[in-house]
Amino acid sequence: MKHRNFKTVPKMIFGRGSFDQLDDVLDAERTNDSDFVVFLVDEIHKDKPLAKCLGNQPQDQVIWLNIDDEPKTTYVDALTEQVQAFAKQNNNGKDPVSVVGIGGGSSLDIGKAVALLLTNEGGSASYQGWDLIKKPAVHHIGIPTISGTGAEASRTTVLTGPERKLGMNSDYTVFDQIIMDPGLVTGVNKDQWFYTGMDCYIHNVEALNGTYINEFARAFGEKSLELCNQVFLEDHPDADEKLMMASYMGGQSIAYSQVGACHALSYGLSYVLGFHHGIGNCIVFDVLEDFYPEGVEIFRKMVKKHNIKIPQNVCANLTDEQMDKMIQVSSGMAPLWDNVYGPDWQQKVTPELLKSLFKRM
Ligand code: NAD
Ligand code: ZN
User: Fold this and answer.
1) Smallest-distance ligand from the CA of 151
2) Superfamily of 190-359 according to CATH
3) Has this prediction a pTM greater than 0.90?
4) Residue 84: is its pLDDT beyond 90?
5) Pocket of ligand 1, candidates 158, 184, 224, 256: which has the most ligand atoms within 8 Å of its Cβ, to mutate?
6) Which of 19, 192, 249 maximizes ligand 1 atoms within 8 Å of its Cβ, making it the mutation to test the pocket?
7) Is ligand 1 within 6 A of the CB of residue 187?
8) Helices (DSSP H) in the chain: which residue ranges?
9) pLDDT tens for residues 298-354?
10) Could you say which of 72, 128, 202, 218 would form a disulfide bridge with 166 (CB–CB 3.0 to 4.6 Å)?
11) Domain extents in the chain
12) pLDDT confidence of 172, banded at 50, 70, 90?
């Protein structure tokens, strides 16, 4: 058996107020006056304090991201062209010295993807998969403003393409720098805070209960789970710090293990019904007590404590085609099911099983 040789983010800053240090980080990348930086920022921040302290210079390009839909390959390609057109007009076609993604998992993933596509030609759909990227990306920085996905730590950028929802997984995808400033999550609405936070909680439950578990993944997963429990079951003044750290550690845990049944089903659900990742996971996890009895019991306590309404009966009116598609997408997540059941997973993951689970959502 070959062990995974995985790349982590080489530089990171953590702490409330650390966003102010973005300037210093960018100064180190700028070597002459015409060098420019691209800021890809969730448009939710456009009229918020963050917009005023981006630290952008007159020669920089700021693009506000629309993330009504989760990132699509077509959107990433259009953004890349927008950056290239800007470079052509203002910098003799020379790439930016850094791409900064600011926002939730969607914006972080867009930041990674654009940085990759600036140096790898042919459109993002052609790189969906594992290790298809051949050239290093432009220097790229991730700054989360909501906690949970672990996208700040991972070697993937999840994109919905013409054929499938699949990441561009590669060592070049990993951010060169992340800045984790818990002060930036102020203003996230409670439901969204919960849904994205539960993504982290579920990463840990799936990793810790999977067949791929090992001491590396367990070390990060257990600590991350402990932090999630503190955040969602107790009351702590530094809950934002805890959840931001939990998100990073949950990302590290699954980087060296794998997610499981909830993510496999949630990919199918979201593909057909368009749910965003966090809420989709919550809808699915709520029916997985046979897979993760303790995890689901505690999840329900968290839902109750925060008075969250998980959407019900979302699969009530599905056509047969939609149900078949959901089953097809979910059962296609081979490594995830392998992590759940081991190598003979195909005997266990039957269309009947998946259908009975979807019908309860
Ligand atoms: P998101 O980026 O889609 O954002 C969710 C909502 O929160 C949006 O409406 C956004 O505008 C809002 N928001 C973000 N920061 C805010 C702030 N400070 N104040 C107010 N509102 C704010 O959500 P997410 O759950 O973080 O990310 C989901 C995406 O991440 C999906 O596309 C999923 O596929 C991807 N993902 C990627 C990885 C990875 O490893 N690359 C892992 C898990 C999920
Ligand atoms: Zn997830």
Assistant:
1) 1
2) Dehydroquinate synthase-like - alpha domain (1.20.1090.10)
3) yes
4) yes
5) 158
6) 192
7) yes
8) 22-29, 49-52, 73-90, 105-119, 190-208, 215-233, 239-255, 261-273, 277-285, 293-305, 320-331, 334-341, 345-348, 351-359
9) 999 999 999 999 999 999 999 999 999 999 999 999 999 999 999 999 999 999 999
10) 128
11) 11-185, 190-359
12) very high
